[in-house]
Amino acid sequence: MSRTGRLIALERAAAIARSANDRRQHRGAEQESLREARWAIMQESMSEEHARLVVEAYAAGWQYVTSAGYRMPAANLLRRCLDTLHRSDQRWPDSEIRQEVALAMPPEVAEVYLQHQDALPLHNCEDCGYRVPHPYFEQCPLCGGRVGWNAYWHRHKDDSRTF
After folding, report:
1. Which residue among 102, 116, 135, 148 has the highest number of C-beta atoms inside a 10 angstrom radius?
2. Cβ–Cβ contacts within 10 Å for residue 17, how many?
3. Which residues, including other chains, have CB under 8 Å from residue 149's CB and lie 6 or more apart?
């Protein structure tokens, strides 16, 4: 292959790489914008103190197992918030739950996550679908509905399905 042919091939390869990089950057910017919008929704439901703890723990990198602060109560709250933000991609079956409900982190729920490292959102409200940490709530902190294992799906969907 001639020198000119090699240059043309290199220019094509560089253009393809630039195009792929531009697409990745665009998707990254879209994802960041979506995360910021979700965080804004979540933050509306939080106390100022809890939101501050989450922001500080995130800035300190406490969500990572290798972080010295990983076992801190604020790190546990941060991880639950990040899990909620990630889960709210609106994939089925969560797509039926209103985003304001799916992203909520009311103060009483945040307090459970701060005080109990083992708390996980394993139950949900039969009325609104909000996920709450088991076994700390018998009633939904958002709407007052009963909570339990797959309570929303058992009430609103075919009980024969396994989730």
Report:
1. 102
2. 10
3. 122, 123, 134
Describe the chain by its helix, strand, coil percentages, rounded to 5: 55, 10, 35
Lookup: tokens for 148: 């339990």
Write the DSSP string, 82-140.
Answer: HHHHHHTTT-TTGGGS-HHHHT---HHHHHHHHH-TT-EEEEEETTT--EEEETT-SB-
Whole-angstrom Cα distance, residue 111 to residue 65? 22
CA distance 73 to 116: 8
Summarize pLDDT for 113-156 with one digit per residue, the tens: 999 999 999 999 999 999 999 999 999 999 999 999 999 988 88
Please state, in angstroms and rounded to a whole number, the distance separating the CA atoms of residues 16 and 105. 43
pTM for the model? 0.79
For 90, other C-beta atoms within 10 Å of its C-beta total: 11
